[in-house]
Protein: Resistance protein
Organism: Aspergillus sclerotialis
Amino acid sequence: MDSPFKTTIFGQLMRSLSGNRLYSYPDEVDPSLWKKAVKQDSSSTSPSLNEQTDHVSKEAGAQDAAGHGTIFEGHSVLLVGWYGPDDPENPQNYPFLWKSVISFQMCILNFAVYIASSIYVPGEPGIMEEFNVSETVATLGLSLFTM
């Protein structure tokens, strides 16, 4: 399961040092794989992606200079999706253990921010005395930290 580690600093460093041989992305292994990310609706009630693109192109402009994407009201539109419902890089498909680790890290980091901000408050009188500043200036450190 190298997918979660691929985007970490360690994974990117190992990827760079190995000349992109380690932790390769799926579209680097199979360059035609990105075409699977284009979603087309096969139902008869809604138009296909090509028909939608043609319709938007006729209404709001044309294709960009390279002939890719669609220009909509002066902005180029690029639709990006997953490679499929079982794409291992989709966070919804991560194993339960990995989801739990990520959730735990988020809780710990959130807890650390609240603890760090409350630790500063008892030291404000000392900051006011040491630097001879008002309470407003002493509180500035806490205010800037929590922003």
